């Protein structure tokens, strides 16, 4: 469950900060930032630098899984992980903070939790990968 980084684009670049603080233990920060203007737009005059577009706390010891990321005002937090038979880590439980809100969206009522169940022994017939007609 990983949100698009918005790359490749001329006006966006990824920045890896292994020394960043504030994320889960053992993680490093991968963020995207604007470095210019989108092609075809007029240049703004004297604007301050724009904030990061997205932030992902990735764990290099666990297959670089994004353990936490922020999209708008809703952070996502990986609460449980498992390993595939080949040793790759993947999330099995992810919490989306502040996802449940009142009808007017002014009051946060709770979080949303996603569970992932994978069956590595399932047989997948080749017909599943044929183009639809």
Ordered list of secondary-structure elements with their pairings:
Blueprint: E1 12-17, E2 28-34, E3 54-59, E4 65-71, E5 74-83, E6 89-101, E7 108-115
Antiparallel strand pairs: 1-2, 2-3, 3-4, 4-5, 5-6, 6-7
What does this structure look like?
The protein has about 130 residues and is mainly β. It has one domain (about 10-130). The chain has strands at about 10-15, 30-35, 55-60, 65-70, 75-85, 90-100, 110-115. The protein has a 7-stranded antiparallel sheet, with no helix packed on it. Strand 4 (about 65-70) and strand 5 (about 75-85) form a beta hairpin. The two termini are about 30 Å apart. The model has no long low-confidence stretch (mean pLDDT about 85).
- Overall form: extended
| Helix residue percentage | under 10%
Terminal CA distance reads: 29 Å
SSE pattern: EEEEEEE
Content-based structural category: mainly beta
Number of domains: 1
Q: Strand content of the residues, in percent?
A: 35-45%
Enumerate the spans where pLDDT stays under 50 for 5 or more consecutive residues.
Answer: none
Total E-strand runs: 7
The biggest sheet amounts to: 7 strands, antiparallel
Instruction: Return Rg in Å.
Output: 19 Å
Strand sequence of the main sheet, in spatial order? 1-2-3-4-5-6-7
- Mean pLDDT across the residues is 85
Provide a count of the helices: 0
